[in-house]
Amino acid sequence: MQKISIIVAMSNNNVIGINNTLPWHIPQDLKRFKSLTMGNPIVMGRKTFDSIGRPLPGRKNIVITRNEDSIIEGVEIVNSINSLLALIKDEEHVFVIGGEQIYKIFLDHATHLYVTEVDSDVAGDAHFPKLSTSQWKEVGREKLVSKDDLHFSFVDYIRQP
């Protein structure tokens, strides 16, 4: 069975971004992101790609955009969820990395969630949908503190059968 994982960092109030950037800088989170996604396809929306600014090395980069004329070197472009699902159908493990609209679409398709819960309420203009505890089972939690004294947890979920 194909594994579709969402990987996201969010605050207590479900904020994931502000002005196309992350509202925090947590090196441990970036290291975990790289470790989990390396060697696997990553799916993102155009705004997320623009915020990163380049294809991420060591991964197949797939961008969903409504702009059918988009051509980005090192990136596969798809214009619909159906064309994306056709493109990834033979992939063993795919990571969905954002942003807000892409997360909303894929939450129903995801089998796993890798969440960095940032213990803070922050202002933002992009949010992660509220998780249904009846649909997701927590299978791992690691509490950490950044060098800037920001408390956060790595929390892993699997979809309930």
From TrEMBL:
Belongs to the dihydrofolate reductase family. It comes from Methylophilales bacterium HTCC2181. This is Dihydrofolate reductase. GO terms for biological process: dihydrofolate metabolic process; folic acid metabolic process; one-carbon metabolic process; tetrahydrofolate biosynthetic process. Key enzyme in folate metabolism. Catalyzes an essential reaction for de novo glycine and purine synthesis, and for DNA precursor synthesis. One of its GO terms (molecular function) is NADP+ binding. It catalyses: (6S)-5,6,7,8-tetrahydrofolate + NADP(+) = 7,8-dihydrofolate + NADPH + H(+). The keyword ATP-binding does not apply. Residues 3-159 form the DHFR domain. One of its GO terms (cellular component) is cytosol. Keywords: NADP, One-carbon metabolism, Oxidoreductase. Pathway: Cofactor biosynthesis; tetrahydrofolate biosynthesis; 5,6,7,8-tetrahydrofolate from 7,8-dihydrofolate: step 1/1. InterPro entries: DHFR, DHFR-like_dom_sf, DHFR_CS, DHFR_dom. Its EC number is 1.5.1.3.
